[in-house]
Amino acid sequence: MSSSPAKELPVVAIVGRPNVGKSTLFNRIVGRRVAIVEENPGVTRDRKEVEAEWLGRPFLLVDTGGWMPGGSALDNKVSQQSEKAMSEADLVVMVVDATTGVTEEDDQFATVLRHIDAPHLLLVNKVDNSEREHLIWDFLGLGLGEPVPASALHGRATGDLLDLMMSMLPPEPEDEVAEDAGTGHDDGVPGVAIVGRPNVGKSTLFNRLIGDERSVVHDLAGTTRDSIDTVVETEWGDIRFVDTAGMRRKARIDEGTEYYSMVRALQSVDSADVALLVIDATEGVTHQDQRLAERIDAAGSPIVVLLNKWELLDSEQKDDMEYQMQKRLHFLGESPVLRVSALSGRGVHRLLPAIADSMEVYRKRVPTRQINQVIQLAQSAQPAPHGGRILYATQGATDPPTFTLFVNKEIPASYLRYLERRLREEFELGNTPVKMRVRRR
Ligand code: GDP
Ligand code: GDP
């Protein structure tokens, strides 16, 4: 607890019953470039506190382990934590699941929340597409105000959600303005995080990469305590591999519990520009691979997938792997998938060019004039419904490319997706996540 920030940041608590998508939302909001000020798995389950930031306003995001009315002793502890988090928060975001409708637990939860005197917001998660939007009205009955739809997994409407959340926080004290919550490391050297379950071949791959490049390699302190980054000079410029401590040494640092290796992996992804997700092809795409992929995806960096140990597969297994990729990792969309053998080095030479490509797009900045041309053309080809118009557009940020649209009235999400597609095609944004923000003029 000693590492808690002394300054008083507004606290946003994410609460709700298990499986509604709280962690996914948490990771989506935190995105990258955050300072993890505290990772406190708590006595029971994971309660995480992270300093995050939206449009220059820092805040503390708290993810409680869940809330279970009348459960076991362990569950009660979790519930107490949740209640405490709620009563101390400046804003409570209660998450529910559009696909399940209102459950009894949601009901009980809402009752508790209504009795705690904190500003709250009812978020209906898993509204992955506009067809699901009508599902939110089911939740009006919880008596927590108008439900707000979002998809934490796909990032749908999360920009609007953040805007809304910020508008509900107490006004910002003057002297806190303009403080940068970034992680430092803006040395211009792009960062790559190698992540994957234990034993998939991360160390073998890493050592192969730095060996093959015969490059000048130097270590530097990473962003988090006892992490070490390695900078490698390559044909494509310098690349910083994030948190390589465990990959360089023979004697491994203890990877610890699954929870800690997950936290560690996510931290390394947070301070990286590109994530390399290594999968052991001999085991197929496991449930853990899938979860890890979802969380990396939610962190908002481009992903390059490596199917390692490929040389051990017969042709039937190779076909099966294609099928599993389609079925379990379809949400990675256009991410490049490389089939490699880190042990023999086969296919590994394609990795650095793939990283370099991803990096370039991730940091791409498109001139405002060109953005507006594309938007205008898209609007003439297919106008937004009900007289909606995009008046002006800019790219508000890079890493990942973030477009801000100034509009005359509400624009349906399906139309925003259409515009996103056009921007993506026109500016060849490939596997990079793209954020769309809408401002009403
Ligand atoms: P938590 O227990 O509330 O923290 O829930 P998790 O974040 O672990 O999510 C539970 C499950 O719901 C996971 O399989 C997520 O991938 C999935 N999930 C989370 N958000 C969404 C979403 O927006 N859409 C869909 N379809 N699934 C989601
Ligand atoms: P990490 O825990 O992800 O860092 O995995 P390691 O790099 O330590 O590799 C785990 C095991 O897989 C070791 O025995 C490696 O020799 C083996 N391994 C790694 N890559 C390959 C590969 O491409 N093919 C085969 N057959 N074995 C591999």
SSE inventory with pairings:
Blueprint: E1 11-15, H1 22-30, E2 35-40, E3 47-54, E4 57-63, H2 73-88, E5 91-97, H3 104-115, E6 120-125, E7 148-149, H4 158-168, E8 191-195, H5 202-213, E9 217-221, E10 228-234, E11 237-242, H6 245-248, H7 258-270, E12 274-280, H8 287-299, E13 303-308, H9 315-328, E14 337-339, H10 351-362, H11 368-381, E15 390-397, E16 402-407, H12 413-426, E17 435-440
Parallel strand pairs: 1-4, 1-5, 5-6, 6-7, 8-11, 8-12, 12-13, 13-14, 16-17
Antiparallel strand pairs: 2-3, 3-4, 9-10, 10-11, 15-16
Helix pairs in contact: 1-8, 7-8, 11-12
Bound molecules: guanosine-5'-diphosphate (2 copies).
At a glance:
β2 and β3 form a beta hairpin. This protein is of the alpha/beta class and 441 residues long.
How does this structure look, described?
The protein has 441 residues and is of the alpha/beta class. The chain has twelve helices and 17 strands. The chain has helices at residues 22-30, 73-88, 104-115, 158-168, 202-213, 245-248, 258-270, 287-299, 315-328, 351-362, 368-381, 413-426; strands spanning 11-15, 35-40, 47-54, 57-63, 91-97, 120-125, 148-149, 191-195, 217-221, 228-234, 237-242, 274-280, 303-308, 337-339, 390-397, 402-407, 435-440. The strands form three sheets. The protein has a seven-stranded mixed sheet with strand order 2-3-4-1-5-6-7, with helices on both faces. Strands 9-10-11-8-12-13-14 form a seven-stranded mixed sheet, with helices on both faces. It has a three-stranded mixed sheet with strand order 15-16-17. α11 packs across α12 (413-426). The longest helix is centred in the first third of the chain and has 16 residues, at 73-88. The protein is globular, with a radius of gyration of 22 Å. It starts with 10 loop residues before the first strand and ends with a strand. The structure holds guanosine-5'-diphosphate (2 copies). One guanosine-5'-diphosphate binds at residues 196, 198-204, 308-309, 311-312, 341-343.
